[in-house]
Design a protein that fits this description.
This protein is of the alpha+beta class. It is built from 2 helices and 7 strands. A hairpin with a 5-residue loop joins strand 5 and strand 6. The longest helix is centred in the first third of the chain and has 21 residues. It is elongated.
Length: 114
């Protein structure tokens, strides 16, 4: 009986960890240090943990207001399980002089469904 309870607990723990790995929110900050307003294309590499992102298309980028921002995402490297290890992002950022623009990259199955 104890063994069955332990197995059930480990299965639930694995299930929770798998669900958390399948969904990620990554904060991206774009600071402006030179004192000039900017409207630039930003290129950034984002490392991801194994199993987080099956395909680059399962992401969305949100601006500070929570509005989807257009971007191009390319898988640069993959883990042995086929999930994305490094994601290259290209997106446009408007940043005021001396300020920081904040974005959120949402990765996972629900991000692509929204």
């Amino acid at each position: 009986m104890r063994r069955a309870h332990a197995a059930a607990f480990l299965f639930l723990l694995w299930l929770t960890a798998a669900a958390q790995a399948a969904e990620s929110r990554i904060a991206l900050r774009v600071p402006e240090w030179t004192g000039a307003d900017r409207d630039e294309v930003v290129t950034a590499g984002v490392p991801l943990t194994k199993g987080t992102l099956p395909e680059a298309a399962q992401c969305r980028l949100l601006d500070e207001r929570g509005k989807e921002a257009p971007f191009v995402g390319t898988a640069l490297a993959r883990w042995p399980d086929g999930s994305v290890k490094w994601l290259l992002l290209d997106f446009r950022a408007r940043v005021g002089a001396g300020k920081t623009a904040n974005f959120t990259l949402e990765c996972g199955t629900s991000a692509s469904a929204k």
